[in-house]
Amino acid sequence: MSSELSVNNLFIFFKTVLIFLSRPSVQIQLLAFVVAMSLAWLLSKWLWSLLPKRFRDESELDLSNEKRIWAQYATRLSRYLLLPILGLMALILARTLILDQGGFTGFLLKMTSLVWAFLFYRLFIGCLYAVFPPASVRRYHYRLLAPVFALFFLSQILNEITPLNQLATIVLIKLFEDPITLGAVLIATVGLYLWIDAVLSIQDAIFHLLVKWTKLEAGVVQASLTLIQYGLIGVGLVFVLSNLGFDSTTFAAITGGLSIGIGFGLREIISNFISGIVLLYERSLKPGDYLNVEGEMCQIAKVNIRATTVRTFDNVEKVVPNQTFFTSSFTTYTGSDQIVRRTIPIGISYSSQLETVFELILNIAREHPKVLEDPQPIVRLNEFGDSSINLELLIWLDTPAIGKVVACELNWKIWQAFAEHNIEIPFPQRDVHIRSRNN
Fold first, then answer.
1. What is the pLDDT of residues 38-74, one digit of tens each?
2. How far apart are CA 42 and CA 148, in angstroms?
3. Domain boundaries, the chain
4. How many whole angstroms separate alpha carbon 351 and alpha carbon 81?
5. What is the separation, in whole angstroms, between the first and last Cα of the chain?
6. Could you give the CA distance from residue 56 to residue 49 in angstroms, rounded to a whole number?
7. Are 198 and 144 in contact (CB under 8 A)?
8. pLDDT tens sequence across 362-416
9. Nearest CA to 76 among 138, 120, 121, 127?
10. Please, which residues have CB within 8 angstroms of residue 362's CB and are 6 or more apart in sequence?
11. Are strands 317-321 and 178-181 parallel, antiparallel or unpaired?
12. Which residue from 225, 219, 372 is spatially nearest to 299, judged by alpha carbons?
């Protein structure tokens, strides 16, 4: 009986919408709205194309002139405001014409108020593009903000036709003897999607502001925000399941049925999940750290619940399961601090003056801007080789990422200095004696 009633309520809703749209006065107002907004859109495109390219193209931003920067920002902000402003002007004109003909404009007045909301929405979007990185704003503009405003716009129109709270209470199916309403399904699908995207967008905004305006480390901020992110997503999932009618008994039945599958098929996923939580909580690895993965130095780009993304110096990203960091040893260069030591091997001939060579190498190391003064560079005699005296230059750097570059520059300077002072860099030599059979 309840299912038949729900279907009947849904049928009544669609019938009410069709009756509303079949009214001549509503059709005239809808046509006026479509024509007004279409003309406003075409006119805004034409006016924007008249502006100079240096104002329209972000790549042409003139950073040398502060006044020019603010003028360009204001011009680009006007890009988002042109359409709603022109649309409001066109709707006011259309409403005046309809009133002069003795028509009704109640629905058109409601649409005008929604265009006002559209104006503030576009103003908010324009300010976001001016403050935050355009790539991040563009992502959440189309994935979160635009869908939210579209749902708001549609809900306001439908609410003028029939109360939406009655539509949300329509029962679609029954699950575990609990009714599943249309509102609960929308929350479980559209609502959960928007909640997750909202959490991600807020996380990015807070990260950008904290890194820019505070002295907090980016890796620590991102690790902490990631923990909060998954906590909020978990809260959203619990809320969705509770709206779908899942209680403690239902949870026990579902988890009992999935326990065997988790034990056999999802063991690795659960292990990576728990490892990710431990990594984020302990902050033993955080974004920005340098570590050795499969014999190659990498920088951690992001630590997620399931896996950690690292980026090599060739700008190649690797996805490493979190369980790897608990089941195998790895080398980190930024565990407690980022100061690392670099060893540069040097070979000289036995005829060289060690005091002169030591002083020459140390002067070259001390003059390099990337080599730290504390600890000081050290040159030590490593061993007496077969054909050379093997030395080592020990330098300390404030980040491991520049190790190879600094070593290359120092080797080049040492080569030039040795050539100027006639210091020989020997190479292995062998004497070959050929014996004849007669001997």
1. 999 999 888 877 766 655 555 444 444 555 556 666 7
2. 25
3. 1-169, 256-332, 340-420
4. 79
5. 117
6. 8
7. yes
8. 999 999 999 998 889 999 998 888 888 899 999 999 888 888 899 999 999 999 9
9. 127
10. 377, 379
11. unpaired
12. 219
Question: What CATH number labels 256-332?
Answer: 2.30.30.60
Q: 411: burial class by Cβ within 10 Å (0-12, 13-18, 19+)?
A: middle
Residue 3: pLDDT over 80: no
Same topology, domains 256-332 and 340-420? Answer is no
Q: CA 145 to CA 153: how far, in whole Å?
A: 12
Name beta bridge partners: 311: 299, 317
Distance in angstroms (rounded) separating the CA atoms of residues 305 and 321: 9
CA dihedral (261, 263, 265, 270) positive or negative: positive
Tokens of 195: 């909640």
pLDDT digits (tens, 9 = 90+) for 412-425: 999 999 988 888 88
Q: In the predicted model, is pLDDT for residue 217 greater than 50?
A: yes
CA dist 58 and 80 (Å) reads 15
The CATH number given to 340-420 is 3.30.70.100
- Provide CB contacts within 8 A for 417, sequence distance 6+: 360, 361, 364, 423
Indicate the burial class of 361 (C-beta count within 10 angstroms; 0-12, 13-18, 19 or more): buried
**What single-letter amino acid sits at 274?**
I
d(CA 122, CA 87): 13
Q: Using CA of residue 157, residue 162, residue 164, residue 170, what is the dihedral sign?
A: negative
Contact 45, 87 (CB under 8 A): no
Q: Cα(10)–Cα(171) distance, rounded to whole angstroms?
A: 10
- Residue 327's Cβ-count burial label (10 Å; 0-12, 13-18, 19+) is exposed
Q: Which residues contact 389 (CB under 8 A, 6 or more apart)?
A: 347, 348, 349, 350, 352, 354, 381
